[in-house]
Amino acid sequence: MSIDVTREAGVATVTINRPERKNAVTMAMRQAFQSVFQDLQDDDEVRAIILTGAGGDFAAGADVGEMGTGGVRGNMVKSRTLHRMVRSVAHTNKPVIAAVEGVCIGVAFALALACDFVVCAENARFQFAFRHIGLAMDGAAGWLLERHVGVMRAKEIAYSGRFVSGEEAARLGFALEAVEPGTALARANELAASFATAPTLALSQIKRQFDSAPTQSLDEALEFEAAVQALMTWTEDFAEGTRAFKEKRKPAYRGA
Fold it and tell me: What is the rounded distance in angstroms from the CA atom of residue 196 to the CA atom of residue 219?
């Protein structure tokens, strides 16, 4: 199915594995994404997730060979399948890190932005190429990019269809870091390992707070915070964290 998963020490690595086509995403791969991320969501042993691509590229977007086929109904089905793929990444309540080398185009770019963090090679190449083939954006590309860089810069990137380097991505703020080529996955693993030993229930609720904030008023955010914080005081990780603080030792969180 061209989507590979490995698990080690609380970290799952999801690899888009179709390097002969620069990891271009097919319909079957869209469906596999949903299954894979649901399984990882439900696996209590997985406490952080890395999304990356095989063969030196993240992914070259949707498979062009499948575009424009199937008529109106067929293309609506493709869009809905694509939407479920993006939601499966964005709605995962565990930290998700995109490790980007090489090209990251179209829906792959949207997938990376749907993650909590993007770590990329300095020479990575991000692009929304929709204008070059006469299409509007998909995969919530504009919505996701605007959150990071503002509407004017997001429009410039989309309208021009130009490549954005990894270095520029970090400057603009939609990548957390730009690192030496060939080291993005290693850096993502460092971050993921730190999250996998954290109080992951608390991280999941912090993620909910950030996701909810854009549509909340200040008072709504404070009310949500009060409910979430009360819930967290009943977790084993909170008890362990407070004990460790009093005993002046490093806490051993279980994600429970």
Answer: 32
Q: CA Rg, the chain, in Å? A: 19
Distance CA 60, CA 53 (A): 10
Provide the greatest CA pair distance for the chain.
66
For residues 139 and 90, is the Cβ–Cβ distance under 8 A?
no
Long-range residue pairs from 66-74, CB within 8 A, at least 24 positions apart, any chain:
66/26, 66/27, 67/133
Cβ within 8 Å of residue 246, ≥6 positions away: none
Tokens 């042993």, residue located: 45
The helix/strand/coil state of 183 is coil
**Per the confidence metrics, is the pTM higher than 0.90?**
yes
DSSP character string of 22-49: TTPBPHHHHHHHHHHHHHHHH-TT--EE
Per-residue pLDDT at 67: 64
Closest CA to 49 of 7, 19, 82: 7
